[in-house]
Amino acid sequence: MLAYTTKDIYMKDTDETKEQLILQAAEAEFMHKGFQGAKTASIAKEAGVTHAMLHYYYRTKENLFNKVFDSKMTLIANIIIQSVTNSDVALLERVKLVIESHFDFLVQNPDLPRFLINELISQPDKKQIFEDKIRVITSIVIPSLQKELDDEAAKGAIEQIKAFDLILNIVSLNIFVFITFPILKSLDFSPHTADEFLENRKRENIEVIMRRLIKQK
After folding, report:
1. Which burial class, exposed, middle or buried, applies to 146 when counting CB atoms under 10 A from its CB (0-12, 13-18, 19+)?
2. Fold adopted by 1-59
3. 214 beta partners
4. Which CATH number fits domain 62-213: 2.40.50, 3.30.70, 1.10.357, 3.40.1000?
5. Which one, out of 88, 119, 146, 171, has a CA that is 20 to 30 A from the CA of 29?
6. Which helix (H) or strand (E) holds 94?
């Protein structure tokens, strides 16, 4: 006996599509205008739904904001966790993968760093969501990564470094590029395009981190 009718499945797909459209529209609105400046009417219009329907799915602007904020933090956490814990890849290659994956994510979400900083400053209550995600990352990544770093350092393969400092170095270097990008892109990138500039910065960040890790002979 079927648990769902064809109508049930269609309605479920339609609901999921509408929710996804709302979230996409909300993300764009919040990224450009922040929580205070965002309007649910504008989000509904961009998503192609009625304001009543948006309210039906998320009730309040704050609920919708929290969903967007949490989803972005979760994506960042997953990128770092998956890259670091991939034991099939050698440690130094994994470090490169973390840098590349995090940087590429920011290329796809260039407004995210400034959005997060602005909202954490203007809405201190959101700090708890941020802290919770950081704790998830540190609890899963730091212990095993620290052991690997200590083992490689003991063999003389790399310089001694704290796992937390390594992750912070990577995130800080990558995020700085995108926080300052609105200023940097107004400068002359010649002979580089913006895309070439970003690709070059990614390579430079990898080089900086590798120089910190690799034992100098």
Report:
1. middle
2. Arc Repressor Mutant, subunit A (1.10.10)
3. 158
4. 1.10.357
5. 171
6. helix 91-108
DSSP designation for 124: G
Residue 86 phi/psi, 5-degree rounding, is: -75, 90
| Residues forming CATH 1.10.10.60 domain(s) in the chain | 1-59
Distance from CA of residue 187 to its chain's centroid?
26
At position 154, the amino acid (one-letter code) is A
For residue 99, what are the contacts with CB-CB under 8 A and spacing of at least 6? 170, 173, 174, 202, 205, 206, 209
What pLDDT, on a 0 to 100 scale, did the predictor assign at position 1?
42
Cβ neighbours around 187 below 10 Å, total:
8
Max alpha carbon distance in the chain (Å)? 70
Nearby residues of 42 by Cβ (< 8 Å), 6 or more positions away: 29
